[in-house]
Amino acid sequence: MAKRDYYEVLEVSRGASLDDVKKAYRKKAVQFHPDKNPGNKEAEEKFKEATEAYGVLSDAENRAKYDRFGHAAFSQGGGMGGFQGGDFSGFEDIFGDIFGTFFGGGMGGDPRRGRGRSGNDLRYDMELSFEEAAFGCEKEITIGRRAKCDGCAGSGAAKGSSRERCPQCEGAGQIRVQQGFFTLARTCHACGGVGEVVKNPCSDCSGAGLKVKESKLKVKVPAGVDNGQRLKMRGEGEAGVGGGQNGDLYVQILIDEHPVFQRQDQEVICEVPITFSAAALGTEIEVPSLDGKLKLKIPAGTPSGKVFRIKNKGIPVLGSSPQRRGDQHVRVYVHVPKQVSEEERELLEKLAKIQGTVVEDDSDKGFFDKVKDMFS
């Protein structure tokens, strides 16, 4: 039976780019892979056909030969017939994707490298005050996590016994499977890739080798952490099995709302009420800050809503060395009291007679002049 055109096999044009060729082969390989079509000889042949086509079209030199001479370029010792002597280096990225999908691992390599299972990662939600997040702190937390069982020292086997080599994979942790012309490796289901099984399980942990325990940990919170950020504590998750690494602990930062301050990145914002007389005549007031009370000068004629900046009184920049800080922004607004004393009322009434009821601003045009311009 004559070979089909390689471009026809992969369903790409002769001007297709290497990326297009890779995408087309990946699609075919997934569709016709023997593991997805067990016992289907037709699918196996199409998988081989697509792989052979990709082996030629993914190599610039071989593709040029094929474009010029067709299949005849490889019929006489060309090295591509049945892939004898061919260079498979170009398949690594494609096979990595496909085999990872089917088997959760790669092709070839050390059959024992999958032994042992890593422990689970854990999450802990830590509440911090506004000040603790700003300046950093050290907290002690208590978490429940699966650790090595004391009764069996983590082996899972009862006292006086030990783990035995898995009879299914003979201790390799993987089982090799022939798929077409490939030999692939699967994780052994009998031992979970550990290579060992427990025949006489520990009564304390039922053979798991792990038991839930409460542990106290000290967490150093760096200055400047923000709401929603996570701190990673490597190896402080659950214990691994069969020599696997411990999982990690992720501390999720949750910052309480502050009654006075708001935060935007490294900037601190607060609002401070002032009287009309202070805004009109100017004064000096005390404002709160993360470092205590500060003096702030209010110039005469300050409008309500004016924002003043106080440098280097904001949140420390996370990880900066030497430590840098943001700024604090103070927004002042004129406070209008709901109730006034008799003396205040008399004074305000005198002021009202002097000023009238319509306020003219200090610009060249008054309010009514601007309204008149809008409709002229």
Structure description:
The chain has 376 residues and is an alpha+beta fold. α2 (18-32) runs antiparallel to α3 (41-57). It has 4 domains: 6-103, DnaJ domain (Helix Hairpins), CATH 1.10.287; 122-127 and 138-215 and 234-247, Ribbon (Chaperone, DNAj Protein, Chain A), CATH 2.10.230; 266-336, HSP40/DNAj peptide-binding domain (Sandwich), CATH 2.60.260; 343-376, no CATH class. β12 (283-287) and β13 (294-298) form a beta hairpin. The N and C termini lie far apart (91 Å). A 4-stranded mixed β-sheet has the order 10-11-15-14. It has helices at 6-10, 18-32, 41-57, 60-69, 92-103, 130-135, 276-281, 342-355, 367-375, and strands at 122-128, 137-148, 164-165, 174-179, 182-187, 196-197, 210-221, 230-233, 249-255, 262-264, 267-274, 283-287, 294-298, 307-310, 328-334.
* Helix amount: 25-40%
* CATH fold group of the largest domain: Helix Hairpins
Number of helices: 9
- Neighbour order of strands in the largest sheet: 10-11-15-14
Q: What ranges have pLDDT less than 50 throughout 5 or more consecutive residues?
A: 76-93, 96-114
The overall average pLDDT, rounded, is: 80
Per the principal axes of the C-alpha atoms, what is the gross shape? elongated
Largest sheet: 4 strands, mixed
Sum up the structure in keywords:
single chain, 376 residues, alpha+beta, Helix Hairpins, Chaperone, DNAj Protein, Chain A, HSP40/DNAj peptide-binding domain, four-stranded mixed beta sheet, 9 helices, 15 strands
Write the layout of secondary structure elements.
Elements (H helix, E strand, L loop, with lengths): L5 H5 L7 H15 L8 H17 L2 H10 L22 H12 L18 E7 L1 H6 L1 E12 L15 E2 L8 E6 L2 E6 L8 E2 L12 E12 L8 E4 L15 E7 L6 E3 L2 E8 L1 H6 L1 E5 L6 E5 L8 E4 L17 E7 L7 H14 L11 H9 L1
Parallel strand pairs: 1-9, 11-15
Antiparallel strand pairs: 2-7, 3-6, 4-5, 8-9, 10-11, 12-13, 14-15
